[in-house]
Specification:
The structure is a homodimer of 315-residue chains.
Chain A (H helix, E strand, L loop, with lengths): L1 H7 L3 H9 L6 H13 L6 H8 L4 E6 L5 H13 L3 E6 L3 H9 L1 H7 L2 E4 L6 H8 L5 E3 L6 H13 L5 E6 L6 H7 L9 E4 L3 H13 L6 E4 L2 H13 L9 E4 L4 H6 L2 E4 L1 H21 L18 E3 L8
Parallel strand pairs in A: 1-2, 1-3, 3-4, 5-6, 5-7, 7-8, 8-9
Antiparallel strand pairs in A: 9-10
Helix pairs in contact in A: 1-2, 1-3, 2-3, 5-14, 11-12
Chain A binds a DNA duplex (16 and 16 nucleotides) through α2 and α4.
Pfam family, one (chains A, B): LacI
Organism (chains A, B): Saccharothrix australiensis
InterPro entries (chains A, B): HTH_LacI (IPR000843), LacI/GalR-like_sensor (IPR046335), Lambda_DNA-bd_dom_sf (IPR010982), Peripla_BP_I (IPR028082)
DNA sequence: CTGTTAGCGCTTTCAA
DNA sequence: TTGAAAGCGCTAACAG
């Protein structure tokens, strides 16, 4: 940095301020310094920066399985755009989990915040994390609102009124309200939770078949689940979409391949929203405030859109 | 650290050495210091450590799409086991790519090495990366050897002799040799490259159908491709596995769902192998050596196994 | 085997 | 708006 300072004819302090966008530097100086730094291929050393400044500019991202790619991609993009590095922790098995929670003191020294994407934290794990003195934010179903609305509007427009909703296991019931807002009815016994697998989707159908009648549409949080629902319904002699329509909130290759109507970008949306909440918490902390949680606006236009395929049709 | 030193009745230097497993500390001292540190919930500050020591204990992991979850999980696990943090970079679109390659100077100051998982680097990108002065390792098909052998043995045992091999686009031909070693014949025109999508798999079949005859078995590097091959063959009236057997090297949910015989753990294996090569390079560098590349042994027993489903049968 | 002494490359008061 | 000086918390020589 002192090389850059010399080359630009200013002090290191000024270079530091200029490059970080800190106030207290004239626009002219900032521009010039930035240009010199770029020409010299100089970049601030994060180690030294965070050692001196306290902030680490890094966020730990927890995922259970290397997981849903788009979720991770959405979170990573939003974090990087905000200037944070993404430290990935894959908590795939009990060993990895245990090791991670053993080493929380180290975590606290590495990151400014923690983002739990798909880690299904146990209560004691959550408590341990909360003791780390950095904000912890987990993906919630709220982060999926736009996608759910889109799916709900679609099935409603097709004439469906009573639909089943299949959520991820860590989801809470509040999602149902979004369907209600869209003018749909949600029977309590038609709000179901499923593991994010084909088998999970099949089991969901078994439950539905036990009832007195079937819904005419099913909204599934995941592509695998949607496929499971699809396969199981067909095996039972039901026609899709003749008897039952299926929408997936997970527009991956799987939905595309099998021809399932899906909301594209839903997972990315979840990631981005969660990051928004985390950034708000970080901002709050650095302002000395206490804004844990807090509403956030992705700023960006919602990146979700519905792709209609062969799994949905009029009631 | 000085607190711990005081509490343990030693100097900070000794604490540092003890906690990092550096030589030059008696076992007794090390044990005691470690225990004191743990009790005080102390962890070394990475910033300060790497500022003073030069090593960053972090690796940048590049992925195109948040990608194949198991690949990432395998790499992350192996890196963390070796004491490295994983800095995730998702190069999902041109914007993200451009931003990443704009900022290479910053990368060089953050990590000790780069691991490209599924980023399909263009030549100029690869060159730019190589200019970064840290080892760069990309996942190669070599990292898939055990999986390929397993798949080859399976189809051979079923009586197949001439098989088609569908590789990822960035793969090289050497994989074919593994099939030959297994006693299979590999016609040049039956070694094919495909994008990792269902559509890619379908196109592959189109190419095969143009030939004078079909192979009796197809080994596919990816689950989506395998599904594409499967769907396209069926559409053409071929029976799977009656006419053609299909094996996927990607034992994900997709293969499970559709009933495709697959090698489970192959992606994890790839990740672990690539990390092995990167660690070797890092070790080489820190020893002052020049061992770029270099053979590595995962040490661990191979984590791959074949799961036979309905897509393979006797010739 | 252990302690002492210099920094590593920044950021941040505090003055100017 | 800018600069000078004092660390941030550790590691690596060098002594002992």
């Amino acid at each position: 940095m002192s090389d850059v300072a010399r080359a630009a004819g200013v002090s290191a302090a000024t270079v530091s301020r200029a490059l970080r966008g800190e106030p207290g530097v004239s626009e002219a100086t900032r521009r010039y310094v930035t240009e010199v730094a770029k020409r010299m291929r100089y970049a601030i050393a994060r180690d030294a920066s965070s050692l001196a400044g306290g902030r680490k500019y890094a966020v730990a991202v927890l995922t259970a399985d290397g997981g849903r790619g788009d979720l991770l991609a959405g979170a990573e993009g939003a974090l990087r755009a905000a200037g944070y590095d993404v430290l990935l922790y894959v908590l795939r098995d009990d060993g990895a989990r245990a090791a991670f929670f053993e080493d929380l003191p180290a975590l606290a020294r590495r990151v400014d915040g923690v983002l739990a994407l798909s880690a299904r934290l146990a209560d004691d794990e959550r408590a341990a994390l909360d003791g780390v003195a950095v904000p912890v934010v987990a993906v919630r179903d709220d982060d999926l609102r736009d996608a759910l609305r889109l799916a709900a509007a679609h099935v409603r427009d097709l004439g469906h009124r009573e639909v089943a909703l299949v959520l991820a296991e860590d989801a809470d019931e509040s999602c149902g309200e979004l369907l209600v807002e869209a003018g749909l009815r949600v029977r309590p016994e038609w709000t179901l939770w499923s593991s994010p697998t084909v088998a999970g989707g099949e089991q969901v159908v078994d439950v539905l078949l036990d009832g007195d009648r079937l819904p005419t549409a099913v909204v599934c949080a995941g592509g695998e689940v949607a496929l499971g629902v699809f396969l199981r319904l067909r095996r039972d002699g039901r026609d899709v979409p003749g008897d039952v329509s299926i929408v997936s909130l997970d527009g991956t290759e799987l939905a595309r391949a099998v021809g399932i109507t899906a909301v594209e970008g839903a997972w990315r949306e979840r990631g981005e929203h969660a990051v928004g909440r985390l950034l708000a918490a970080l901002r709050g902390e650095s302002h000395g405030g206490e804004s844990h949680g807090g509403e956030s606006h992705g700023g960006e236009p919602p990146s979700v859109r519905l792709v209609v395929r062969e799994s949905t049709g009029p009631r």
